[in-house]
Write a structure and sequence with these properties.
transcription regulation, Tet_transcr_reg_TetR-rel_C_sf, transcription, single chain, 200 residues, TetR family transcriptional regulator, DNA-binding
Length: 200
């Protein structure tokens, strides 16, 4: 008589979590159905049952990893407060994220950049961008929101790839330039030249 399969409704989620741990520890080169099965403590057949290919597993992992900066951005009270300076709020959020667990930040970007070589991941990477743009569009126009996302991505990559220190003041200044905010405020800087009165 065949043995009944043990009911394990959370197995798929455990496999995804295990994949994230494997990539975080060994990089994408260390990811395989076998290494993930061992990490999740499940039979090898379970990983291939839930994910026919590694790309399918990476798509699920990429979606799960969007609980880092993307979640902070969507849940930030500053984005819902029109009186708060957006540049300062975003610079602070970046600092909190980069100042947290560096391994988690690196993992998010490793999965995000994997889309360069794995076309199956590109729609999910695009979802990350669109989600951030949508969150920022509550405070600015979509074109500016997209520019802000590009700038923040660039700042994060520079810090991660050079091992440098995040400079919150500099990030705030650059974000304010994109937003055309006056320095250290949430008030848009005037685009009109200042007219000085003269004695006649």
């Amino acid at each position: 008589m065949a043995r009944a399969r043990r009911h394990d409704p959370g197995r798929r989620e455990r496999i995804v979590a295990a994949a994230l741990r494997v990539v975080g520890r060994s990089g994408l080169a260390g990811l395989s159905h076998r290494t993930v099965a061992a990490e999740a403590d499940v039979p090898l057949g379970s990983t291939t049952y839930h994910f026919a290919s590694l790309d399918e597993l990476l798509v699920a992992a990429l979606r799960e990893a969007d609980e880092g900066f993307g979640r902070r951005l969507r849940e930030s009270p500053a984005l819902a407060d029109p009186a708060a300076g957006l540049a300062a709020a975003l610079a602070r959020l970046l600092g909190e994220w980069l100042g947290g667990q560096r391994a988690g930040v690196e993992l998010e970007y490793e999965l995000y950049l994997a889309a360069l070589r794995r076309p199956a991941l590109r729609p999910v990477a695009a979802e990350w961008t669109e989600s951030a743009v949508a969150a920022l569009s509550a405070r600015t126009d979509p074109a500016t929101a997209r520019a802000l996302v590009a700038l923040m991505d660039g700042v994060c990559l520079q810090v991660l790839l050079t091992g440098g220190t995040y400079d919150e003041d500099h990030a705030r200044e650059m974000l304010a330039r994109v937003l055309k905010e006056a320095p250290d405020s949430g008030v848009p800087a005037s685009s009109e030249p200042t007219i000085r009165s003269t004695d006649t």
